[in-house]
């Protein structure tokens, strides 16, 4: 049977309906409260620490995102931990809930193809997260203006906007994973548990396993160990393996964008620092170029997971 019209006919209707459901749902309200309360606690500690050197730091707004005050981590670290929870909470039942309610066949009986249904649901979930992160970003800037009293410069605004865009890409990875699992598993509880298990493995366990695997591939050189240094080959393999985790890619991209003095994200060689003024900030464009490979990695991971879910969904049998 040949399709009639565009395969994406109905994307707008699905998007508006799902976006309205997401924003008004109790689940989304609880996730937003969790993120806002935790992030505001870290931000309060950062503001208290930065009030003492408002005239000394030229990138005071960026420091709000990166300063950590024990026992709380930095604002960015908290978001790196909580954004996947929000994405998984929105995406683990995107498709299997329609199966369980037996509404999927009714939806597809309308002039809406599977392409439009899947894309509309995904875009609505990503738009919900983007709206929440944008509101949180504006809240951080507003509180910084009120309590620090120093207006941000143009480069600070540009770097914080880059932070916002990369954070949305990071959320897209976990939303794609959650949607893929909602297609694979008919039970929402199973999909949620598997998604949380993968998140815990990549965020908590993988950073501990990667150095051990790297040492098995390139054993440490005793000459470097005697000097208290890491073997270059082992360090390179460790960083390469750790970058399989989206959380590590997000952290490196944030380091490059929000810390203007960061010149490299890998091992530092002499030719990289020759002629450089230590501690001098890099221009915004060069910081973006440093973070670009990590950002592309997040986008590529999102596309791969979405395509995998798309292929599986197209091949699934839908029964009334």
In the predicted model, the low-confidence regions spanning at least 5 consecutive residues are none
Per DSSP E runs of 2 or more residues, the count of β-strands stands at 0
Strand content: under 5%
Shape: globular
Termini separation comes to 20 Å
Q: Helix/strand/pairing class, anyone?
A: mainly alpha
How do the SSEs run, as a string of H and E? HHHHHHHHHHHHHH
Q: Please summarize the sheet with the most strands.
A: none
Describe this structure in words.
The structure is a single chain. The model has no long low-confidence stretch (mean pLDDT 84). This protein has 14 helices and no strands. It is mainly alpha-helical. Helix 1 packs across helix 7 (114-148), helix 2 (26-50) packs parallel to helix 7 (114-148) and helix 8 packs antiparallel against helix 12.
Short description, anyone?
Helix content is 73%, strand content 0%.
Topology:
Blueprint: H1 11-24, H2 26-50, H3 60-66, H4 75-91, H5 96-100, H6 104-109, H7 114-148, H8 154-184, H9 188-217, H10 222-226, H11 232-242, H12 246-258, H13 270-273, H14 284-315
Helix pairs in contact: 1-7, 2-3, 2-4, 2-7, 4-7, 4-8, 4-9, 4-12, 7-8, 8-9, 8-12, 8-14, 9-11, 12-14
Features of this protein?
73% helix; 320 residues; mainly alpha
């Amino acid at each position: 049977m040949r399709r009639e019209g565009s395969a994406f006919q109905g994307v707008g209707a699905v998007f508006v309906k799902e976006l309205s459901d997401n924003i008004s749902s109790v689940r989304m309200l609880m996730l937003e409260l969790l993120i806002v309360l935790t992030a505001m606690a870290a931000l309060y500690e950062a503001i208290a620490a930065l009030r003492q050197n408002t005239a000394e730091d030229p990138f005071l707004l960026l420091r709000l995102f990166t300063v950590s005050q024990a026992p709380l981590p930095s604002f960015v670290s908290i978001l790196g931990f909580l954004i996947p929870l929000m994405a998984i909470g929105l995406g683990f039942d995107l498709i299997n809930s329609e199966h369980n309610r037996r509404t999927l066949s009714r939806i597809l009986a309308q002039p809406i193809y599977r392409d439009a249904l899947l894309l509309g649901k995904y875009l609505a979930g990503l738009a919900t997260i983007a709206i929440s992160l944008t509101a949180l970003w504006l809240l951080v800037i507003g509180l910084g203006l009120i309590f620090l009293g120093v207006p941000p410069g143009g480069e600070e605004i540009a770097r914080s906007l880059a932070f916002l865009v990369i954070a949305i890409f990071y959320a897209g990875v976990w939303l794609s994973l959650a949607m893929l699992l909602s297609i694979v598993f008919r039970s929402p509880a199973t999909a949620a548990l598997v998604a949380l298990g993968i998140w815990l493995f990549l965020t908590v366990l993988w950073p501990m396993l990667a150095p051990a695997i790297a040492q098995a591939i390139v054993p440490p050189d005793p000459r470097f160990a005697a000097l208290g240094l890491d073997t270059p080959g082992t360090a390179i393999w460790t960083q390469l393996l750790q970058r399989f985790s989206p959380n590590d890619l997000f952290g490196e991209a944030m380091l490059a964008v929000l810390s203007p003095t960061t010149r490299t994200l890998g091992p530092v060689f002499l030719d990289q620092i020759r002629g450089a003024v230590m501690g001098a900030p890099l221009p915004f464009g060069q910081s973006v170029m440093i973070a670009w490979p990590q950002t592309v990695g997040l986008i590529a991971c999102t596309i791969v997971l979405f395509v995998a879910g798309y292929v599986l969904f197209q091949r699934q049998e839908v029964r009334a």
